[in-house]
Amino acid sequence: MAEAFLNAFGGDKYLAESAGIEPGSLNPIVVEAMKEIGFDLSKNGTKSVYDPPIGGKSYDIVITVCDETSAERCPVFPGKGMRLHWGFEDPSALQGSHADKLQGTRIIRDRILDKVKAWIAERQ
């Protein structure tokens, strides 16, 4: 979600790439929640931070969004780039009915959107 928002609202100043610690398949509830606000992630693939082209690459800015319980597992990237950690709950960890998970994902989505927009505004 953060990748989509940063690429959409960061103009030509930022190019975001995202990857997971343990990539699998896209969370269909995340895809659904993002589609509600005009972002189609259905064709996106998942990547691992440990595999090329992400792993071993040097970045100007690395923003990790692992939840706080997984923060110690967040990867380390080489280089002298700025490192930020924005802890957000993992939507795949949400429990309950589909409706409950979707509502929780909307909350996480909106928090990520607010954080990305605020961060971009701070840097201008």
Structure description:
- With 124 residues, the protein is mainly α.
- 34% of the residues lie in helices and 6% in strands.
- The protein contains 3 helices and 2 strands, in the order ααββα.
- It has helices at 2-9, 28-36, 98-122, and strands at residues 61-64, 82-85.
- A two-stranded parallel ribbon has the order 1-2.
- Helix 1 packs parallel to helix 3.
- It is globular and about 45 Å long.
- The two termini are 22 Å apart.
- The model has no long low-confidence stretch (mean pLDDT 87).
* End-to-end separation: 22 Å
- The proportion of strand residues reads 5-15%
For the biggest sheet, the summary is: 2 strands, parallel
Please count the helical segments: 3
- Give the rounded overall mean pLDDT: 87
* Rg on CA atoms, Å: 14 Å
Structural class: mainly alpha
Q: Considering DSSP H and I runs of 4 or more, what fraction of the residues is helical?
A: 25-40%
Q: How do the helices and strands follow one another from N- to C-terminus?
A: HHEEH
Strand segment count: 2
Strand order of the largest sheet: 1-2
Low-confidence stretches: none
What is the overall silhouette?
globular
